[in-house]
Amino acid sequence: MIKNSLIALLLLSVTTTLAGCEMVGEVFKAGMWIGVIVVVAVIALVLWLLRKMRR
Fold first, then answer.
1. CA separation (Å) from 23 to 17, 31, 41?
2. What is the pTM of this model?
3. Short-list 32, 53, 50, CA closest to 42
4. Mapping DSSP to helix (H, G, I), strand (E, B) and coil, where does residue 5 land?
């Protein structure tokens, strides 16, 4: 009885841990793309401002 409960508990904990790792991976992927977009936008803004200042 205790052995079956232990196996079920272990299986449940492994399943939830793996799902949590997948979610964290997806959050980091989304965060990376948002960071890339922000960096590109800032570079474009700086270039635009430099061109405006030269005129």
1. 10, 12, 27
2. 0.53
3. 50
4. helix
Task: List, as one string, the DSSP characters of 15-53.
Answer: HHHHHHHHHHHHHHHHHHHHHHHHHHHHHHHHHHHHHHH
Say whether 1 sits in a helix, a strand or coil.
coil
CA dist 20 and 26 (Å) reads 10
**Which pLDDT belongs to residue 20?**
67
- Cα(55)–Cα(53) distance, integer angstroms: 6
Q: What is the mean pLDDT of residues 15-26?
A: 72
Tokens of 21: 């790792």
